[in-house]
Structure formats: structure tokens, C-alpha cells
Design goal:
Helix content: 10-25%
Structural class: alpha/beta
Distance between the termini: 39 Å
Largest sheet: 10 strands, mixed
Length: about 325
């Protein structure tokens, strides 16, 4: 993807308070509209039947290719906190965290995937389906990571997929297109990830505003975007516009939700570089013989934002005031 806007290294040009990242190209998002520009028609989908039915069967597959997954792990290794609490939005059986963070998260979770707590019949939209550490909902507002751990909370639509994700300390079933408010059970957040799923949300600003309210000052949100989707469930405008316009659209979501320091990180432009092709060994040689010198792979971007220091949080003191002022 090309752009007339200058790009810089994500690791070199950001201020100390901004989100860190490895040396992927990044460019700032610039707001284009004074008011939210999208209409209800833009969020209409080809299949408006109950999302719960669509996601009822588990899909133990990955929705981006291995090349994109590897690069995403590199990005996460530098951009995500190593302790604290991370929300994996629209979560599934795999979150694509780097091995270093997976190990910490699995140790924090102490996950026993053979124990489903007999919750098979509790599939309502706001059911906590797993709390591997045996902690009840009253404890989730503690300071996450105070013991040096990394707690990953998964919020998704399919219980079997969530149970199969070993890094999740807790998992929550919720249809965000019906209930866009992030539930209290999630707790206070240091960061949020969402992999190739923002295009399915019909109320994205409401969801992202709710996440912002639960995020600590300086915390970030990382919305991973590709060109892969279930077309009948993606919002209509997503299918009508270019890849560049999709990135701008996600930037608009974050902007109108109140996030700051919004940027677009290019993880992969969809072309396999020569050095990467060489690393494929025999596969790379075969691609060369077939004239596939610039192999095609899944493109991938992250549209990300940071919470500023002047926005109020939902936090530990909900019982006193309902909001906690960020320091």
C-alpha cells in the first residue's frame, strides 16, 4: 500500500509516552471529519441473523497466514506490556502473542483446560465461562500484575474456542453487537488487542469508548486489520471501500471514541520480501522457479491508540464514585 503521507519507524519517532513498537513503518492518523461520518446503512450486514448462531460452532483455524502471524508476534513483543491486564477482544482459541508473553500469561493463568466448571448450559451473553485461577468476579478490580504476572482476559462468542486458549486467565461470553459495554468483570486494563475482527462490530465507537473508560492512563489499544473476513458478517461499508479507506475508518472509530496518539502501523504490505522468501528455503526456491519472485502473503496493519492523562477511568473505586480520575 502506498501513501503520500510520510512514514517513519515506529521505534524512532514516537514520544516517550506513546506506544512502543519495533521498526515497522508507522504514520499518524489525521482526523478528517468534525462529526461521526458513518450512517446505520454503513453498518448493515449481508447476514443480520443472530450472531450467536453464526459463531455457535467452534472454528479452530487461523484467519491470517503464518507469515502475518509471525510478524504480528514481533509487533506484540514490543508493543504489549509484560505485566498487568490485557483484554483480548473478539478472542478465540489463539491470540498470536509472542512466545515470551505466552509463557508469562500461561503461568499467570495456571490454566486447566479440562475443567469447564459445568458451565455448558450457561451460554448467555454475559457469562464468565472460565476463571482458571478460581478467582470470583469480586476480585477482578485488584491491581492486575501486582505479582509480576500478565493476566489476559478473553472476550468472545464461542465457549469452546475460549476454553482452548491457554493464555486466558478468564474468558467472558458476550455479543458486543447487542451489548457493546465492556462488562465490569473485565476489570482495569493496561492494553487491549483485537485481531481481524473490528470489521464485525456494528457499534464500534460504543465498544471502543467502553474500553477506553476501563483503560489506565497511557494504556493502548491495538486493532489488527487485514483483508480477510467473513463477508456476510462484516459491516457493509467495509466491503465497499479500499484497504486504505478501511484503515482510515478504524482510525475514525478510535478518534470519535476518545483515543489519542492514533497511528497506522504497517506490519506487512502483502508482498513477501526477498530476504523473507530466502528464509523459506525449498519453498522459496520453488517460488523463484515458478516466477513468483515477489510472493503474495496476507497484508496486515495495526491501527492503534493511547489513552491520555486527562480522561476518567472506570476503576477500582466504582463503589465510591463510579469513575476514577487518571493520574
Amino acid at each position: 500500500m502506498t501513501s503520500s503521507k510520510p512514514t517513519t519507524s515506529a521505534s524512532s519517532s514516537l514520544s516517550p509516552s506513546s506506544l512502543p513498537a519495533p521498526s515497522f513503518p508507522i504514520r499518524p492518523y489525521a482526523p478528517r471529519h468534525k462529526t461521526f461520518p458513518y450512517t446505520a446503512k454503513d453498518f448493515h450486514r449481508g447476514d443480520e441473523t443472530d450472531d450467536t448462531n453464526f459463531y455457535s460452532a467452534p472454528r479452530f483455524v487461523t484467519h491470517i497466514d503464518d507469515h502475518a502471524i509471525g510478524l504480528l508476534r514481533e509487533y506484540y513483543a514490543s508493543a504489549l506490556p509484560r505485566r498487568g491486564r490485557v483484554l483480548d477482544l473478539c478472542s478465540s482459541w489463539v491470540s498470536h502473542f509472542p512466545r515470551s508473553l505466552e509463557r508469562v500469561a500461561i503461568a499467570t493463568a495456571g490454566r486447566d483446560n479440562n475443567n469447564d466448571n459445568n458451565n455448558d448450559n450457561n451460554n448467555n451473553n454475559n457469562t464468565i465461562v472460565a476463571d482458571a485461577r478460581g478467582v470470583d468476579g469480586g476480585d477482578v478490580d485488584r491491581e492486575a500484575g501486582s505479582d509480576g504476572g500478565l493476566e489476559v482476559v478473553g472476550l468472545g462468542m464461542n465457549k469452546r474456542e475460549l476454553y482452548s486458549n491457554p493464555i486466558l486467565s478468564r474468558a467472558i461470553l458476550r455479543n458486543l453487537n447487542i451489548e457493546p459495554e465492556i462488562p465490569d468483570e473485565v476489570g482495569v486494563l493496561d492494553a487491549t488487542t483485537c485481531v481481524v475482527s473490528i470489521d464485525y462490530l456494528t457499534k464500534p465507537v460504543e465498544v471502543l469508548s467502553s474500553i477506553l473508560a476501563r483503560t489506565k492512563a497511557g494504556g493502548g489499544v491495538h486493532l489488527v486489520v487485514s483483508n480477510r473476513c467473513f463477508p456476510t458478517k462484516a459491516v457493509g461499508r467495509w466491503l465497499r471501500v479500499s484497504e486504505e479507506e478501511r484503515l482510515q475508518m478504524v482510525g475514525d472509530y478510535l478518534h470519535f471514541a476518545g483515543w489519542e496518539d492514533i497511528g497506522i502501523v504497517e506490519i506487512c504490505d502483502g508482498k513477501l520480501k526477498e530476504a523473507e522468501q530466502a528464509n523459506l528455503g525449498e519453498m522459496g526456491r520453488l517460488m523463484g522457479i515458478l516466477g513468483m519472485g515477489s510472493g503474495r502473503v496476507d497484508p496486515l496493519w495495526v491501527v492503534r491508540g493511547r489513552k491520555g492523562n486527562t480522561i476518567e477511568d472506570k476503576g477500582e473505586d466504582k463503589g465510591k464514585s463510579g469513575l476514577r480520575t487518571a493520574l
